[in-house]
Amino acid sequence: MDLDTNPTVLTDQDAAIKQTVKNVFRNSKHRLCMWHIMKKLKKRFSKLVWDINMKPDVFEVKWGLLMKEFNLEDTRWFKDMFTIRDSWIPGYFSDIPMCGLMKTTSRSENGWEVYIVQHNNSKSDFKSGFKVEIKAEEKEINCSCEHFKCMGVLCIHAFTIMMRCGVKEIPERYILKRWRKDVISRNYRFSSIQSDSGDCENVKLVNDSYYSFESCLDIVRDDKKRLTLFAEKQQMLLKEFESDYISPGLKSKTDGEVVCKLLGVTIPIPEEINIHVPEVQSNKGSGIKKRIPSASEVAYENSKKEHRMCSGCGKRVPHNLRTCPERVGAAKSAKDS
After folding, report:
1. What pTM was computed for the model?
2. If we measure between CA atoms, which residue out of 134, 138, 143 comes closest to residue 163?
3. How many structural domains does the chain have?
4. Which residues, in sequence order, are bridge partners of residue 119?
């Protein structure tokens, strides 16, 4: 490169590179790569605003350092967003249950063990401590970071103390219903059930019956004794209703009636059917409507036919004079000799 010219040097944001460019390319114009700037800004900005464990005073210090590093102190949008920081930064409302999914409950202050957990960030100079209170026997735990109250999931500080205190399983009270497979109400499962008569009250009774049955089954699922009793009572009810249900005039439903019930519609069935399936004639050249026989079937059919007499060997076999094995063999021997 010709050092007498005035080149424009494009580099990453680095203090050592800046000084090197200044010393080597003295007449150059040093500029920073916008791609690196935006990539770093997005990464740093995301970590700053999404850290729910960061206290407000720590956030304000980090915000100031970030604005100074990227020369954004005079940017109006960042100024406006910093003014309303208490409305969108999680650290300012970490004590509020997100989306109203959890309610705070009163608790006794007796029997609590208190621990202080240090939270270190390897990429930051800031250190923070959180107060963790635990009742090991009752399996009740509370952390000052209030991550569970805000997000519905226990924080790493709580898990650290739980393992230290010998708690092997997550307490049931800290597994919210929103994370379970049965979060959807059973009422929605049977909302599509239709009644033959279209009676809304009858549909509601059917849905309630399904819901009651599954609720009872969930309660006794893990208790073999109660589950056996529940199954016996179900069998007794089934036999009782079956004996009352059978009557001489009862007839089974047709396929059409089953489909109508499934779709929730009523289709009148005429007494006489005047429209029939048309008789279809084969078009000219459409061929014979038979499947292609296999090789074994062809061989079997040929074996039943009476063979013609071969004039070469004088036998009734499935070959002629041209393909007769004896004639072909004799001709080959004469040629070799």
Report:
1. 0.31
2. 134
3. 3
4. 128
Same domain (yes/no): 145, 198: no
How many residues in the chain?
A: 337
Which amino acid is located at 193 in the chain?
I
Locate 154 and state its tokens: 């226990």
> 314-328: per-residue pLDDT in tens?
888 888 888 888 888
pLDDT in tens, 40-90: 777 778 778 777 777 888 888 988 888 888 888 888 888 888 887 777 777
User: Which residues are bridge partners to 117 per DSSP?
Assistant: 130
Residues 148 and 199 in one domain: no
